[in-house]
Amino acid sequence: MKNNTVLITGADGFIGSHLTEALVKEGANIKALSYYNSFNNWGWLESIDCQKDIEILTGDVRDHNFCNRITKNVNIVFHLAALVAIPYSYIAPDSYVDTNIKGTLNICKAALA
Ligand SMILES: NC(=O)c1ccc[n+]([C@@H]2O[C@H](COP(=O)([O-])OP(=O)(O)OC[C@H]3O[C@@H](n4cnc5c(N)ncnc54)[C@H](O)[C@@H]3O)[C@@H](O)[C@H]2O)c1
Question: Where is the signal peptide (predicted)?
Answer without folding.
Answer: none
